[in-house]
């Protein structure tokens, strides 16, 4: 029997550093293979009606150069778009924006699709609900469960009443995803507060 923990571990995690327009950034990279055609995965990641099912409510101008909002993930601006393989977004206020997210898709064997999602940030920490969190470690608890939700959405198995703003497919998904991300980052230490609590959703588990 496949458990949700098994499903979460299908997402691979990687930590890296690179330069974005705002300067040197730390990056959280997530990789997962989906049993769906690249065109279907691209549509699920760019169509607002589908995004609100598994990711967040996205509203605004979704053309190249357009600005939009994505619920609790803040505002963004599309800087590069090459359907169905590449989408780059400058994330946050300011010019240059302090964060950048990039979605990369490539076709795999037997009609599958490899998804790579990278969030680069120039911030060291974030304050959420009065608590200080390591900016990169926060990402494990937020993106991990959503990438699992995307898998279920593509398979037609996502619960109709799931609210993606709650971050998790169940109350413990966020914590398990944060732990998987922490394990992948064993070569680098978080702040002490972030080590105790990685993300808002993990706290609720």
What's the helical proportion of residues? Answer: 25-40%
| Parts with pLDDT < 50 across at least 5 consecutive residues | 168-178, 187-205
- Strand/helix succession: HEEHHEEEEEEEEHHHH
Main sheet attributes: strand count, strand direction, barrel closure: 8 strands, antiparallel
Counted by DSSP, the helix tally is 7
CATH architecture: 2-Layer Sandwich
The average pLDDT score comes to 82
Report the β-strand fraction as a percent range. 25-35%
**Full CATH superfamily name:** START domain
What spatial order of strands do you see in the largest sheet?
1-2-8-7-6-5-4-3
Cα separation of the termini: 23 Å
What can you see in these coordinates?
This protein is of the alpha+beta class. The protein is 30% helix and 33% strand. The chain contains seven helices and ten strands. It has helices at residues 4-8, 38-46, 48-54, 137-154, 173-184, 192-196, 200-204; strands at residues 12-20, 23-34, 58-60, 67-70, 75-82, 86-91, 99-107, 113-121, 125-128, 131-134. α2 crosses α3 (48-54) and α4 crosses α5 (173-184). The longest helix has 18 residues, at 137-154. It is globular, with a radius of gyration of 16 Å. Residues 168-178 and 187-205 have low confidence and may be disordered.
Concise description?
30% of the residues lie in helices and 33% in strands. The protein has 7 helices and 10 strands.
Layout of helices and strands, plus pairs?
Elements: H1 4-8, E1 12-20, E2 23-34, H2 38-46, H3 48-54, E3 58-60, E4 67-70, E5 75-82, E6 86-91, E7 99-107, E8 113-121, E9 125-128, E10 131-134, H4 137-154, H5 173-184, H6 192-196, H7 200-204
Antiparallel strand pairs: 1-2, 2-8, 3-4, 4-5, 5-6, 6-7, 7-8, 9-10
